[in-house]
Structures are given as C-alpha cells and as structure tokens.
Amino acid sequence: MKTLKNHLGLITSLVIVILIAIAPIVSGNAASREVVFTILRAIVLASSLNILLGYTGYVSFGHIVFFGFGGYVGFYLITAQGQSLWVAMLAGGVVSGLLAYLLGKAILRLRGAYFALATIGVNEAVRAFINNFEPFGGPTGMTMNFSVYQEYGGAMKALEMSFYIMLVLALLVVVLSYVVRTSKFGLGLLAIREDEDAAEVMGVVAPDAKTWAFVLSAIFPGMVGALFFFKNGSVEPLDAFPLHTSIEMIVMVMLGGQGTVLGPILGAAGYQRMRGLLVTSPIFKNIQLAVSGGLLLLIVLFVPAGVIGWARQRWPKLRRVLQ
Amino acid sequence: MKRSFTILLALVLALSLVLAACQPKAPAATETSGGESGGETTAKTQTLVIGFTASQTGKYNVSSGRQVNGLNLWMKQINEAGGIKLSDGTVVTFKAVSYDDESNKDRVQELYTRLATEDNADLLISPYSSGLTAAAAVIAEQYGKVMLTTGAASDATYKQGYTKVFQMYTPASRYLTGAVDLLAKTDPSVKKVAFVYENSKFSTAVVEAAKEYAASKGYDVVLFEGYDPETTDFGPFINKIQDAGAEAILGGGHFQDGSAFARQLYEKNVPVKFVTLLVAPPEPDFADLGDAAVGIIGPSQWEPLAAFKPDFGPTGKEFEDAYMAAYSEEPSYHSAGGYAAGLVLEKAIRDADSTDPDAIKAALDNMDLTLFFGKIKFDTSPEAHGLQIGHSMIYIQWQKDGDKLGKQVVWPEDGATAEVLYPLH
Amino acid sequence: MDFILASLADGLLLGFIYGIAAMGLTLIWGVMNVINLAHGPIIALGMFTVYLLFTFLGIPPYLGVLLAAVFGLLLGIVIYVIAVQRVIDAPHLSSLLATFSVNMIIIGIGTAIFSTSPRNIDLQLWSISLGPVTLQGTRVVASFIAVLVTAGLYYFLYRTRQGKYIRAVANNRAAAELVGIPSNRVLALSFGIGAMLATIAGALIATFLPFNILAGGTYELKSFVIGVLGGLGNPVGALVGGLILGLLEGIVPTFTQTTWVPVIEFVLFVIILLVRPNGLFGAKQ
C-alpha cells in the first residue's frame, strides 16, 4: 500500500494512457483504433523526447531521425532478410540507441541553440544519405509484399496486433520516463538542466549522463519506426524523416509540460486531438496550421511550463499525483 | 487581466484534453451526392458509398482537386440520370464520402480504415500519388474493398500480391517508352540520350524502365541522374548534360521541377535536339513559359485532342464540354482520370448486374473496353494483378502556330495532329 | 575544363544569393541570440510580394524588390513586438518555439491564400555567353544587387548612429543600456533588418527560380549551414559562407551524383559546428 502511494504519479500516468486506449479495445471499432494508434505513437515519441528535452534541457530539433533510422533498419530486415517483426523492432531500437550514443558523444558538447542546429543538420544529413543509399531503395524507398502479413494471421490481425504493441510501447515508455525522473540518474539530469557547470561541480558526470539520456530517448522512437512502417507497408525517405514532425514532438512536450511524466502524454493526446478536429472542421480546415501556430505562441509566451507544469505551480497539493 | 487570460487559456487546454481522452468520434466527413431522382417509384433504390481521401491541402492539392472534380462530375451525371437500373429492378445511385489527407502519408491509413468501417464505403478510389496509394492499398485489401487507383502510376503497388486494387493509368514502366520510339522514328542518327529525373517513386520507376528500353534499342545512355524533389536550380545538371554531349533529354518529375528545368534549358541555350519531360508539359499552365515551352514533348494519360471512339460513356468532346460547364476550367488528364474511374465502376456494376463486391471484382477482371480516356484492361495474373495493360500514353508537344502557343499530339502516329517539331536547336 | 568553368560560374552566382539569404538570420542571431525559425516563410513572403506586385499591378520586379524590403522591415518589427520581445531573455527553447509558431502561422495562412502551386515571374533578360560559360541576366543582376545590399549593410552598421547602437547592443546589452541606448528599440530594428534581408533575398530569388509558399524552407536550411560557415552573428561572413556553399554546389556535381551534395553540406555543417562553432573565420574557442 505504501509503495503504491509512493508511486501515485506513475499510476496516474499509466491509467491515463489506458483510458485513452480503452475505447477501441472495448468496442473493437477499427476506425477508432486507428485514431488511437496515431495518438499512442505521438505519446511514445513525445515521452521519449521528454527524457532528453524535459530532463536535461537539450533541445533536439531532429529527433525524428531515430524514428526514421530505426524504421528503415527494421523494414529492411523484414523485407530483405525475411526477419520477423520482433527482430525488426528490437533491431530498430538497438541501432537508434547506438546512433544516439555515437552522436551524443560528438554533438552533446554543444550547448543551447548550437546543439539544436546540429540536430537539424544530423537529421538532414541522414535523410540525404538514405536517399542515396541503394540497399535501402534510395529515393524510392522499399515496399513490402502483402503476403508478409500472412505470418501474423492476415493483414487484419497484423494491424490489430500493431495497435496492442504500440500500447505496450506507450506503457513501457511511461514507466521508463518515471523511473528516470525519480532515480538518482534523473536528478543528475535535472541538475544539468538547471546549471550544467554547477552540476559538474556537484559531481554529476555531465557528458556521460547526457549521452545516456540521449540514448534512452532514442530507443523507443526506433522501435516505433519499425512498427509503423511494418504497418504502413512501405517506407520512403520523405516519410521517414519529416522535420516538421520533430518540431511537433517538441510542441507536444511543451503543451503538456516539459520535464514531467504526465505532461507529454496529455500534450500528445491533446495536440493530436486538436489537429484531428481542426483538419475535419470546415471553418479551420484551411488554416489549421495557422491556428496550431497561434496556440503554440500563446503557450510559449504565457504558459511556458505547459499544462502540467502550470497545474503543479497552481495547486502544489497535486504534485504527488501529477508527476 | 493577464491572470484571467492565463486561466482561460488553461481551461481551454484542459477541455481539449478531456475531449482527447474520450472516445474519438468520427469527424464530419464531406458528403456529396447528386439529386436523387429515381424514375420509377416502385423500384428499390440502393445507394453505394464511394470513399476516398483528397489532398485538399499540401503539395498535391491541385492535381488531386482535379481528380476529385472529375469523379464528382460523373457521380452527379449518373445520379441525375436516375442511377443504374439492374435487371432485378434495383436502382443504384452513388454517394461520395471523403476526407483531407493533407498530401501526407501519416493519416492515410487511419482515414481509409474509417472509410471502410465507419462509413461503410462499398467502393474505394485511391488518393492522388503513388506514395499515398501504396499506403491506402494495404487497407483496401485488408477489408476486401475494391479500389480503383487514379493518379498512381508506379508499378510496384500492383506487385505486392493485392487482388482488389485496379489501376486506371498507364503504369510508369510504359510512360516514356513511346518517346523513345518517337525519337527513333524521327531521327535514327541520334544515339546519345541523357536521363535527368526527379528522385521520387514514380519518376524513378518511369526512367528505369525507359532506360532499359532505350538501351535495348541501341541508345547510348550518357547520363542517368536523379535530382531531389525540391530542386529549383538545374545548373549542375545542365552542365553535365552539355559535358556528356547528349543529343536528347528524357526525364523530369512533377510540374514545378519540370517547368523550371525547361525554362533553364532554354535560358542556357542547351544544344539538344529532343526534350521529353514527365507530367509538366501536358498541364495547361506550362504555356506560361512562353518561348521556353516550344518544342518540349510530354507524355499524357489523356488529351482533349485525342479522339478515341468510346464503346461506353461520353466522347472526349462531351466530357470536356460538361467539365467546362461544371467547373469553368479546362479538364486536365487528372480530371479525365477521375471521371473515367467513375465510368469504369459504372460499367463493372452494369456488367455484373449486381452490387455484390465479388461480382464487381469479377467484372473488372474481365473488363476490356474503350472509353474517351482510352482502352481499359487489367492484368489478372497473380504477380501483377490489377496493373493497367490496356491504356497507353499519348505524347504532346508545344508548338507555335503563328504567334499562338498550343499543344499538338505528335505520337502515336495514328492520333497525331501535327508533325513533330525537330530538332529543337 | 569547360565543364568545371561553367559549374564554377553557376555556383558563384548562386552563392551571392545564398549569402544574402543567410545574412538576415545571422544578423538576428548576432544581436539577440535568437535563431529565427520563421526565416524561411519570411523569404517566401518576399517572393510573393514581388510576384503579386508584378502580376497584378504590373510593377517591375526590381522595383518590387525595393517594396519587398520595406515590407520585410515592417514585418520583422511586428514579429519582434508580438512574438520575440517577451522571450528574449528566456531559455533558447522559448525563442525557438516562438519563432517557429510564427513560421506555422505564416505558412498556414499563406497556404490557405496561395495554395502550394508553383509560381513563376516571367522575366527574361539577356544571357551572355563567354566561351563555355552562359550567364543568365537575371542571376547576374541579382548577384549585383546582393553585393550592393551587403555593402549597404556594412555601411549602416559601421557608419551610422543606429548601426553603432546595434553593434553596441550585440556586444553587451546591459552595458549599452547603461549608456542610454534604448535597447528594446534597437532590438526591434535589428529584427526588422534581419527580416528585410530575408525578403530581399526571396524577392531576388523569385526573379529567376520558381517558388511556392513552402520554398523558403530550403533557403532557411541552407542559411543555417552558411551562418555556421561564416560564423553565426557575422553578417559579412555570411556572404563569404554563401559563396563557399555556392561553389560547393557547383563543384561537387562535377565528380559525383548531385544528390550527394546535401549529404556533404550537412555533414560539413555538423563538423564545423563541432570544431569551429564561431565559423571558419571566427576566433577559435
């Protein structure tokens, strides 16, 4: 009982993820399952990014590179090597983590805006490279034969299965995010966010801590990439490395509250929901991007801590629940 | 003041989050249906739902919009004519349900799933572009819905083992082969050709097939190079073309890059004899290039000038007039493709004399007809089921008649309206 | 040899335009440490200003460039007052996101009004052929204007009172305020000039290349690379950085597939960020 109470923040977050996913599980409705799939994908990406952005304060503007790279490697394993989805997802996660490790060693030395610029450069460089890389199909990407789905009980079952895998990934990433935040390692990260030099004086080995945060934030996007393109049936450079999705991830984290566990979840769900509504509303359809932009501006200018950050300041008593 | 604003904002946000947590409801779809004027009052009416996504925003919005216009025109006409009467007395009318895919693959599968399940679409039409169609085809196949694809020429989609997907356009592999034939016929002395093309699924598929074809005809491919889709400056390619001493250029991609390429070839006085580019030349807006457009050849799925004798549906002229009356603009081949997709569905339902999906699929498998759009016949082999094997491209060239710039059909020979202008320089 | 000469000339001409496109970005960074992520859309607005004036009012494109500059100056000041002013001292993330939301607003409204169809200004000037090299008149004129603008900016920054204020604020804002320089007004003016340089670049590009509302994005990315090459915060370095990038784009395709150019560009970009974050000519850290 005591332990449960200690981890109220984690429980709240997990319950909310399950609540978001509950409708299609109960009703078995495929259309709402697809909508929730998109939301869950956003939750995984935003929560992953939060481990870097929220905890260490380093802004990765090209985080989608891990989604695309993991997705490409996973897709290649399925189509060209005949591997199973499980191997592909594992590999996607591992190579993305590895890429983050190598990159982290190099570019995490840069601070502030210089780091942000470097991540944009990395994303563009990787995309341009894949565009020229023939084993991955070069500019035209790769497609998957429909018969691959037969191994998973047919396409219908495969897509349903993808949804449940995504749900599991979302729950796992929330646990990871919570564990990091409440661990000593996480405290070190938060110290880096506040003042990196001071943190080093206090005994935080900043370069290592930052690199591991970067790696942790890259693994899940890589796995999601492999799953997403498996479900999609094809992969192309432009779909795999969209810079705008990187920025949307940041927006989701900011919206919900950077540096909290629950924030990115609510931010991702809220942002996706809002876009879904705007895209299909006859009034806002044409200017949905402008409306999203206006909303983002208001948040940045007036509520920079995001919804959860704001609620935590407003009602300190809720802090235990809203982690 | 500032404080109350902050609270208000937070409330709005909180509300949207609550909404997010609730069960997602289907957003309002755009529904269009023509007047339902059933002739016989006793007849049973059945309304078939045709589902598709359109790129109302994003980079494909022009082409996609024309395709949808064409389809809607067909639907309006058939509904106003009282629908299709089957032999058992059922009257079949149509209704369209569509969503905006933002020219973006992210939501295509989500939207097609919704069309197939929530909206109970009976028949599907593809989105515009090969990339989006590849994503939609998985869903169509999975829910066993027949899907006609327009604006999706890439061959690869039809080689993934699908059985319900049918292609309206001449596939990419046969897009430029006619241009090679035209060149061989016009000037057998030309040997050096350069392929410069957009790095996209569609263009690459086109040029790879054309390159192989050209090589088999004894051409020397002196340059074979792709450019990124957002390329606007063709200086490096033009220099390479000149360096390689190419006499003919084949390639291009979409409208923006194709027209820029043509313009810069002209400004740089590149001494080539023959230029054929994809997609851009058939578009009416290509005329804006003025003198730079003269002599440029382009493959087209359909042209108002082409006079096929249809054995079903309207003639090209009738279609063009109806389209002009409805949208007050000239139809492009995208418009014609959308309209023809409707005609093919109509014919399949008439042939099947039923609205049963399996019967419609069988009718499509057996289809062999000529529309104003050209011949339509689908591959039924398991390796490439649904690939278009009847339709073929026509080639137009921009020519000057006095001071007036206009398109002329120059290939195939039996449909030609003018001699090919050759050489360019 | 002919081939390389022609490629060099093309690259050089393009380099001047790249340089001026990056100058605005790097000026804003130098003065207020803000990376303006709305840079691309502002370039695109410059393109559309010239296009609309030319197509609907028949105003000659080169006069349009001047009007686009005025428009850019005002637009920049408005963006500064609404979006940037409040976050100027906040962490980097805030100013990045604030300018990015301006990006979304401009692109959103622009797409609704203009759609994303390609536009073209039908302006054909002479072409000069010097041996193997053919120079298009529009590009030569644009490069010439780019050099003039750079010289003008240099004069403004070093010879006028306002320009000196800007340099003072860039150097040390607190100190500048102490000696009575109205720093907020100076910052607004700097942002305005940064946006003005962007619209001028867009306007010039529009005279010889096709564009749509999203076209600025490419130049924004290139501007990052150029800014880092020439040293972020160094406007004149930007012109040199632009020329280097232009030459690179001219030369690289002579020995490999052109699609490798962006790979080389962005790898170089990351390496320079790591090794010489103050630019090739900046002081070593």
Give a description of the structure.
The complex is a heterotrimer of chains A (323), B (425) and C (285). Chain A has 323 residues and is mainly α. Helices cover 77% and strands 1% of the residues of chain A. In chain A, helix 3 packs antiparallel against helix 10. The longest helix of chain A has 29 residues. Chain B has 2 domains: 213 residues, Rossmann fold (3-Layer(aba) Sandwich); 150 residues, Response regulator (Rossmann fold), CATH 3.40.50. Chain B is 36% helix and 21% strand. In chain B, the strands form 4 sheets. In chain B, strands 1, 2, 3, 4, 5, 6 and 7 form a 7-stranded mixed sheet that branches. In chain B, strands 9-8-10-11 form a 4-stranded parallel sheet, with helices on both faces. In chain B, helix 2 packs parallel to helix 10, helix 3 runs parallel beside helix 4 and helix 10 crosses helix 11. Chain B is globular and about 70 Å long. Chain B starts with a helix and ends in a 14-residue tail after the last strand. About 6% of the residues of chain B have low confidence. By secondary structure, chain C is mainly alpha-helical. Chain C is 74% helix and 3% strand. The longest helix of chain C has 31 residues. Chain C starts with a helix and ends in a 10-residue tail after the last helix. Chains in contact: A-B, A-C, B-C.
Brief summary of the model shown:
The complex is a heterotrimer of chains A (323), B (425) and C (285). With 323 residues, chain A is mostly helical.
Keywords, please?
heterotrimer; B: 425 residues; alpha/beta; Rossmann fold; 4-stranded parallel sheet; 36% helix; globular; C: mainly alpha; ABC transporter involved in vitamin B12 uptake, BtuC
CATH topology of chain C: ABC transporter involved in vitamin B12 uptake, BtuC
Query: What is the third-level CATH name, the topology of the largest domain in chain B?
Result: Rossmann fold
Briefly note the structural class of the backbone of chain C.
mainly alpha
Q: Please estimate the helix content of chain B.
A: 25-40%
CATH architecture of the largest domain in chain B: 3-Layer(aba) Sandwich
Tell me about the largest β-sheet of chain C: 2 strands, antiparallel
The domain tally of chain C reads: 1
* Strand segment tally of chain C: 2
Structural class of chain B: alpha/beta
CATH C-level class of the largest domain in chain B is Alpha Beta
Secondary-structure element string of chain B = HEEHEEHEHEEHEHEHEHEEHHHEEEE
Using only CA atoms, what is the Rg of chain C? 19 Å
Question: How much beta of chain C, percentage-wise?
Answer: under 5%
Shape of chain C: globular
